[in-house]
Write a structure and sequence with these properties.
The chain is mostly helical. It has helices at 2-11, 16-36, 47-58, 67-102, 117-135, 138-149, 153-178, 182-189, 194-228, 236-245, 249-277.
Length: 278
């Protein structure tokens, strides 16, 4: 009995008190946020709410499966994928040059120690540009472009291009600067240009992670392109918004099923690509 009692303190977690403190601190910080957002989940189980929910979901069944409507949904689903893919292509055109300009790992002026003033200011300016691009949600960009270019997929493509260009540029830069830079700096010290140092020093070791993140972002862009349709940016979301305004629950149900299948296929495709590049 004495032996068992003497062993127990050795198995006690020495960090339990700090963990308890931070858990309580998180609750204290979370409580005001729940009050401000008027988070009251129990209202979902009130009789009137349950009745409205039952009536709303009842309109979804059975889903509409007429041939002409299914062709329309298939065409809009393909348009949704096209918006995401075109937006990602433009995002890469934005992100890659900005990444090269903002990455200090291929800075020639930083080889001798502290980076020179002009390159430093340029890099900070580019990084602030990336912050601006990614801080404005693609939904807001879509609202802006709908006013500029009108309703349709063009607004969605441009919205994804700007927001995802900022996201890709930021993460690309972090990936490149977190990898080993000895080979890159050796190339620069021996007279190689910045692009040569990038292609032969940084890119080979960072390519799998860069590609994996790009594929993941493409998958996210498909989800975003459907949401952008609700503000008139085309695709499956816009058609879903039209059906909801006309109280066509059966049409909405069909499009939700198609969208879930679309996301599942995108998830499968991105997983397959990640395995191929691993």
């Amino acid at each position: 009995m004495d032996t068992a009692v003497s062993v127990l303190p050795q198995h006690r977690d020495p960090a339990w008190l700090p963990r308890l403190f931070w858990f309580c601190a998180a609750l204290v910080l979370l409580a005001p946020a729940l009050v401000v957002t008027e988070f009251r989940p129990w209202t979902l189980f009130e009789p009137e709410t349950l009745k409205s929910t039952q009536r709303f979901l009842g309109d979804f069944f059975p889903p509409k499966i007429e041939g002409e409507f299914l062709l329309l949904v298939a065409r809009e689903a393909w348009r949704t994928v096209a918006i995401a893919t075109a937006g990602m292509a433009l995002a890469l055109l934005v992100a890659i040059p900005l990444t090269l300009l903002s990455t200090s790992a291929i800075s020639i002026s930083a080889l001798t120690g502290r980076m020179h003033a002009l390159p430093f200011v340029l890099r900070q300016g580019v990084r602030w540009l990336l912050i601006v691009l990614r801080s404005i949600p693609e939904l807001v960009w879509a609202l802006v472009f709908v006013r500029v270019v009108g309703l349709g997929p063009t607004a969605g493509v441009l919205a994804i291009a700007l927001t995802y260009g900022g996201m890709l540029g930021k993460v690309y830069g972090e990936i490149l600067e977190s990898d080993e830079t000895h080979a890159t700096r050796t190339l620069l010290r021996n007279g190689a240009g910045r692009l040569q140092a990038f292609f032969y020093g940084l890119l080979p070791q960072s390519a799998p992670e860069l590609t994996s993140y790009t594929v993941y972002r493409w998958e996210c862009a498909i989800r975003s392109s459907a949401v952008l349709g609700f503000v008139g940016a085309g695709g499956l979301g816009q058609q879903m918004d039209n059906s909801m305004k006309m109280f066509q629950g059966s049409e909405v149900a069909t499009m939700l099923i198609v969208f879930m299948l679309l996301v599942a296929l995108a998830d499968y495709a991105s997983g397959w690509l990640r395995k191929r590049i691993a």
